[in-house]
Amino acid sequence: MNQRVLHHDAASANDATQAHAPSGGTVRLTTAQALVRYLAAQRVTTEDGSGTEPLFGGVFAIFGHGNVAGIGEALYQHREALPTLRAHNEQAMAHSAIAYAKAHFRRRMMAVTTSIGPGATNLITAAALAHVNRLPVLLLPGDVFVSRAPDPVLQQVEDFHDGGVSANDAFKPVSRYFDRIVHPAQLLNALPRALRVLTDAALCGPVTLALPQDVQAQAWDFPADFFTPRVITFHSPAPRAEDIDAAVAHLRRARRPLIVAGGGVLYGHATDALHRFAAAHGIPVAETQAGKGSLAWNDPLNAGALGVTGSPAANALAHDADCVLAIGTRLQDFTTGSNTLFTQADVIGINANPFDGLKHRALVVEADARLALDALAESLQGWHADRTWTARAHKLSASWRDTVSTLTHAPQRDTVLPYEGDVIGAVQRSSARSATDDIVVCAAGTLPAELHKLWRASKPGAYHVEYGYSCMGYEIAGGLGVKLARPAREVIVMLGDGSYLMMNSEIATSVMIGAKLIVVVLDNRGYGCINRLQQACGGAPFNNLLDDCMQGPLGAPKIDFAAHARALGAEAEHVANIAELEDALQRARAADRTYVISIDTDPARTTNDGGWWWEVAVPEVSARDTVRAARSQYDAQLAARAAPADPSDRPGHIDNE
């Protein structure tokens, strides 16, 4: 890997930032120069606490007429302190930047700059992804001229009713903080505000600073001390004593508590605290997609994945729990089974963001996960969940681990196509160290469900699946960002043929910058996941698998993914079965560049174990019997959810009065 570009020395970056900053007074810079210098000056304590390193790992850039002259020149001047990485697609490079921050548990991040017009609007999907997943990324799209003298410029979007609107206003609903810099002096307020949002556990998400191209080039006398290197303090709230007391009272009344571990456990560096807390009080733990890896897969109290893509162990415990401690989770519908999975349990929401904490009518503890767990542990000394409940959790969890082993080691038949579980097993068997060192990256389709159930994550960060936005196309670009963040670890991107075709250009970027990935493409000839959902809702197979799509006289093409990947500079091969896949994975691990392996898989077969109801609206009126039957089942589920929960029906209910 290109060490100079990707892993610039912290000390040299610091020196480069200070070299041009006078000790006092002012320094005359353009807006773009001041912006870049400020970003380069921000530091963060290293993970081992031995020193500092840059907060921003670099800037992804695709230049155009809206940013090449301003930001482009500024980035060139500071390319040693703040590396610039070129990508091939604006949405993809933002995905890479977001994945970089997620892999660093939100303690380091990247910026992204584009031109105006399509370059900017290509970032909108990535901004929404970061917003949904509560992940930091700094978006720096170019904008039209503030002077309006040359309006309309190339690529300018004109609003017929508001002359102040540009394409960048589309970022407002998907940004945690948005600002349009119309004068250089505004950076003095906008940049500290942006940094606070990016580094605050409650506010965290995408920040957009729209940069009109004439203002980028405008000069101003900035205070020199504005660019003094500073070490960032990450902001996380401590719990209030009264909130802890209320949560303790709920837990002490509970006999069958369950912990739901979300992404906030990882971002709050609370995994050790979670392990201690669960073990001390005998509480089983179920993991969301974002929280998977909070406990080691073989921890006796780890019941596995929860919800629609959940394990039978976790879902059984959630269904019977009388108290759910939801830590750092958004409680989205896949976690709660569309609000049907633990409706009769008291919910305690521990979250730095009260908007997320109060979901499911929870008692809110607005706090950092680690601080809250430590406070609860201190107040709950001597308390333990019902011993039979803990024993049941141990038994269910152990049984599920055995099932996972069976599913991922199933004997293969040449006459039957493998499915995702077979491929996951092969990947995990391909290295004796894979259980601890590999990082799997995925985002959409069937694979997130199978990985959530079957991937064995031994430590935090081993599981990197974007499922808040479930964005097809994130996978390869996200894998690149993970590799930039964790260059010493093997990053294995697993994705379907649909996602590969949607966005694959960053294979070329990974080769160019020496960020090696292993990419496993599961080719089921279409959108297999949605095809199954379509039929589950009574629909006919239509427009999902290639065979069911409108076709011309030549029919649907047989796509050679290996040949395509080789054309992008990667090494690649297609394999016929799981045995060949295992051999290919060894070659991939030994390779010096990104290695792509494709394998044909079954679009219909999935893991039957586990799962829960997920609400997908079925048409009330249809000429098809299958749709009417599906609607009848849907109505029954709606009626069951709407039935008022009677706390006295809860197994082993203890009257709170």
Give a concise summary.
With 657 residues, the protein is an alpha/beta fold. It contains 27 helices and 23 strands.
Itemize the secondary structure elements and their pairings.
Elements: H1 3-6, H2 10-19, E1 26-30, H3 31-41, E2 42-45, E3 52-54, E4 56-61, H4 71-77, E5 84-86, H5 90-103, E6 109-114, H6 118-121, H7 124-133, E7 137-143, E8 177-180, H8 187-198, E9 206-212, H9 213-216, E10 219-223, E11 230-231, H10 241-253, E12 257-261, H11 263-267, H12 271-281, E13 285-287, E14 302-305, H13 312-320, E15 323-327, H14 333-336, E16 346-351, H15 354-357, E17 363-366, H16 369-379, H17 387-408, H18 420-429, H19 434-437, E18 439-442, H20 447-454, E19 463-465, H21 474-485, E20 491-496, H22 497-502, H23 506-513, E21 518-523, H24 528-536, H25 561-567, E22 571-575, H26 578-590, E23 595-600, H27 625-642
Parallel strand pairs: 2-11, 4-5, 4-6, 6-7, 7-9, 8-9, 12-13, 12-15, 13-14, 15-16, 16-17, 18-19, 18-20, 20-21, 21-23, 22-23
Antiparallel strand pairs: 1-10, 2-3
Helix pairs in contact: 3-4, 5-7, 5-21, 10-16, 12-16, 13-17, 18-20, 18-26
How does this structure look, described?
The protein is of the alpha/beta class and 657 residues long. The chain folds into three domains: 229 residues, Rossmann fold, CATH 3.40.50; 160 residues, 3-Layer(aba) Sandwich (Rossmann fold), CATH 3.40.50.1220; 192 residues, Thiamin diphosphate (ThDP)-binding fold, Pyr/PP domains (Rossmann fold), CATH 3.40.50. 38% of the residues lie in helices and 17% in strands. It contains 27 helices and 23 strands. Strand 18, helix 20 and strand 19 form a beta-alpha-beta unit. Helix 18 crosses helix 20. The longest helix is centred in the middle third of the chain and has 22 residues. The N terminus and C terminus are likely disordered.
